[in-house]
Amino acid sequence: MKYVFFDIECACVFKNVAKICAFGYVVTDESFRVLAREDILMNPKGKFHLTGRKGGEGLVLPYEYEDFKKYPVFPAKYREIKGLLEDKEAIVLGHATMNDVNYLNLETKRYKLPSFRFEFFDTQFFWMNATGSFDHQMGLGAIAMELGVEFTPHRAVDDAYATMRVCEAFCKREGVDVKGLIARYGIRGGRVENYQIRCPSSGKQREYYRERAREKEEYHRRHEEFYRYVNKHMHRRKKGGSLEGKVFCFARDVETDVPMSVKLVAAIFNSGGKYTSHPAECNVYIARETGGLRYESALSGGAAFISYDALERQLVEGEEG
């Protein structure tokens, strides 16, 4: 068994276009001894249109762009790449591999070539399973830094090599090989076949999303409970109380801290105050801490900020008194 680590760079990437200019790979044995490594450069048959992570200009590949005109186009390297990735004796790995597999898919469609057909794994997904951080996709550089691996970003073969080193360091830290990582976290590899791509998955990932769904459902339940009370009782508020003319708004986490938020809004209504769900319309904003879009919206409209925790203590002390 051997490992094939790969990475792809494109001259441009749009929704249905990914013009590959470099396919970098590193082949190792199961002990991570390098057997082969190469940067396969190709003429993308298009201009370079490179953007940063957030879509802004600025990403620079460490190549001379004019040199790519000298290299063959993707179809000339298709069989070589296909042979590497479809090797029955190899486990194929990358970092954020779904992106690169999608690029291969788009190029094979562009040139009307048969679909690739192979299973793949992802060091980023390994990391997510180990840390439980499925809502945050850490880049290769960040994980490499965490594991003490150095590399030069955006040269395809160097990224492939860094992915290999990251995988090696991760396996050493976990005390297993790649198959052991896959087994430990119950990972099902991604797969591409007939131009269809299946994402990598795991039991831990599924449980994470089930828990997120439960939390979201509970959040909506509490949110609805709070607003049912507000809508039912605001028109019954005391007229001419000490809070007459005051319009309150709570931070989201305060609203859903039921029943304490209900006690607080009841006290506001009993003193003649009103409540709004729109922070820009309030003149008193209540939150546990400063910051956030709702906080900024409220204060930019002239609202005063009051600490929820301080008000909570006053309510509790008032009840005890």
| CATH level-4 homologous superfamily of the largest domain | Ribonuclease H-like superfamily/Ribonuclease H
> What share of the residues does DSSP label as strand, in percent?
15-25%
Give the total of domains.
2
Radius of gyration: 28 Å
Top CATH class of the largest domain: Alpha Beta
> What would the principal axes of the Cα set say about the shape?
elongated
Widest sheet, order of strands: 3-2-1-4-5-7-8
Counting DSSP E segments of at least 2 residues, the number of strands comes to 13
- Given the helix and strand composition, which structural class is it? alpha/beta
Low-confidence stretches: 53-57
Largest sheet: 7 strands, mixed
CATH topology of the largest domain: Nucleotidyltransferase, domain 5
How many helix segments?
A: 11
Q: State the CATH architecture of the largest domain.
A: 2-Layer Sandwich
- Give the termini distance in whole angstroms: 74 Å
Helix content: 40-55%
